Structure formats: structure tokens, C-alpha cells
Amino acid sequence: MRRLVALVGDLVDVTRLQSGKLTLDPAPLEVGALAAQAVETARGLAQAQEQTHPLTLDAPAEPLWVRGDAGRLEQVLLNLLTNALKYTPPTTRIAVRLRRVGGEVALAVQDDGPGIAADQVPHLFARFYQVARPEGAPRSGLGLGLFICHELVTAHSGRLEAQSTERVGTTFTVWLPLLDATGAPSHLIS
């Protein structure tokens, strides 16, 4: 039942994104706290599925503020984390790294899993796209999760990037404009 609810939620989000009717509730948001909350949720999900993924968070001591919809950005991060949990062996390391890079916040989810073939990486954010799996490997979902993540990050004036090497691992990085002390995006300040 939970899976069906998630699939319906994805379809509703796609419809709203395509029609321009998806509304965000942006407010100043400290990304480190959001990342910590998402990592704890993912740890709980891994334990419930009896997985032993070492899941770590590396964040700077300084707070990093963005303007964003906390619920939607958490949705993005949880999707990236649950994909890492789903598509990597149970003992695979998953690391969340948060850092400031110029006027942006980079939030990366990296796994040491099987990786994705180079010819498939450019298609990861396409609607309904699913990475080819070995013969007989189960497929799940509709191929909407990364599309939704990409669209949500774009709606926050950010970008979502993927890097992957087969048999080495995959890293998804969310880039968001950092707020300055006045609450303005720092890349707009000269």
C-alpha cells in the first residue's frame, strides 16, 4: 500500500510540474539540519529493511543557509538516499557531503555501489527513464524520481548533477544558491 501511495504521489507531482501548478513554500533554511534529518530518516529505512549500509554525513560547522521549501528539498534528498539504498549492495558505504563552494551550497550523495554506465548518465533525469539492469534484476518504480528531483532543484534556482563510474560508484550533487547575511542569494551580491 505504501508503495502505491508513493507512485500516485509521484504522478501527481509530475502533473503539477508539467502544468506549472506545483507551488513551493520557500523560506530561509539551514541545509545542514535538513541533511541531518534526511540521513537519520534513511538510517531508519535501512534498519527497517535490515540493511547495514554505513551512512555518514560530513557537514561544516558553519551553518549554510538557502532559500527553499524544506519539505520539497527533503523529498529530493530522501529520493537520492533511498535510491542509493535500493541500488547498492547492503554493506555499501553511502556518504552525504555538504560544503560551500563560492556562492553555492553543494549537497552530494555518494555511494560505492555498482555505478551506472556512462551512456546512461545523460538520461538519468528524463521522465520515465530507468537505468538498464542486469538480466533478471527486478525493476521498481516508474522512472519518475530523478526527474522530479531535477525539476524541484531547478525550481529552487539550483541544479542537480550526476557522476558515475561502473564498479566504482555514483554521486548526485544538488547545487543551491547560498544566502548571504541579508537573506539575498549570494551570487546576486556584487
Could you give a quick summary of the protein structure above?
Helices cover 34% and strands 23% of the residues.
Describe this structure in words.
With 190 residues, this protein is of the alpha+beta class. It has a single domain, classed as Heat Shock Protein 90, CATH 3.30.565. Helix content is 34%, strand content 23%. The protein contains 4 helices and 7 strands. It has helices at 2-19, 31-48, 70-87, 145-155, and strands at 27-30, 55-58, 65-68, 94-101, 104-111, 159-165, 169-177. The strands form 2 sheets. It has a 5-stranded mixed β-sheet. Strands 1-3 form a two-stranded antiparallel ribbon. Helix 2 packs parallel to helix 3 (70-87). The longest helix is centred in the N-terminal third of the chain and has 18 residues, at 2-19.
- The percent range for strand residues is 15-25%
What's the number of structural domains?
1
- As a whole number of angstroms, the C-alpha radius of gyration is 16 Å
Q: Unreliable segments (pLDDT under 50, ≥5 consecutive)? A: none
H/E topology pattern: HEHEEHEEHEE
Separate helix tally: 4
Spatial order of the strands in the main sheet? 2-4-5-7-6
Structural class determined from secondary elements? alpha+beta
